[in-house]
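Class, carefully examine what follows:
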Amino acid sequence: MLVRVSSNRDGEPLALDAFESLAVFVLRMEDAPDAVELSVALVDVDEIARLNSDYRGVDGPTDVLSFGCDEPEPVDSDEPIAIGDVVIAPDIAQTQASELGTTVEAELDLLLVHGVLHLLGYDHESDEDAEVMQARERSVLAAWANAER
């Protein structure tokens, strides 16, 4: 599994390798093939607001966006299968963590798991789908908290 984490934020204080480890953990829990490639980008509020407007038609920032590949297939037999991109706004996560009384790390972990699960086919369009997705998020995060790292 190949996970690439990048940041466009100056002086990024977050441990980017932790995002990579969690993303790989989610992919393994979901039995994704080993030949999977995923990109995770940490962006500022202006960038996520632009992406939210351009791709969802929604004005203003959001916390996480997922962009799946149209047809996740390898370019050739030796290439990994690109499943898509997860884009997270840490500043929004920090605000949400304060509002929810949780840690920024816990909020960022939830957003990453949420984004990866979207790429793997989960959604929250209906109440039933939302319940399934939220239950899976809780399950993955509980397993992550108990995992030896």
Summary: The chain has a mean pLDDT of 90. The beta strands are 2-7, 36-42, 64-68, 81-88. The chain has one domain: 2-146.
